[in-house]
UniProtKB/TrEMBL annotation:
Residues 2-93 form the DUF1330 domain. It comes from Thalassovita litoralis. PANTHER family: BLR0684 PROTEIN, PTHR41521. This is Uncharacterized conserved protein, DUF1330 family. The lineage of its organism: Bacteria, Pseudomonadati, Pseudomonadota, Alphaproteobacteria, Rhodobacterales. It comes from the Bacteria.
Length: 95
């Protein structure tokens, strides 16, 4: 079943986070992921609001998790640590 990678982010260092974004996109694509929502308009209805929200589609949960754990993504993530506050989850779709 396909899976969605859902991130809620508050950027605290735009320069460092920009480097993360530059590296993360290719790492995600390398694992068959594609962005379906990235920093677009949103309406927070419940919970903690984060100004940046990203949703990426992956072929399945295992591939999304493998992407997260890959050396390419971990290199990108090193730039996000300390440059953002984030929550990230992978959710299997029902389709």
């Amino acid at each position: 079943m396909p899976a969605l990678w859902i991130a809620h982010v508050t950027v605290t260092d735009a320069e460092a986070y920009g480097k993360y974004a530059e590296l993360a996109g290719p790492a995600i694509a390398k694992h068959g992921g594609r962005f379906i929502a990235r920093a677009g308009r949103f309406v927070q209805l419940e919970g903690k609001e984060r100004p940046r929200n990203v949703v990426a589609w992956f072929p399945d949960v295992d591939t999304a998790v493998a992407c997260y754990n890959s050396p390419d993504y971990q290199e990108a993530l090193n730039h996000a640590r300390g440059a953002s506050e984030r929550e990230l989850m992978v959710v299997e779709t029902s389709e």
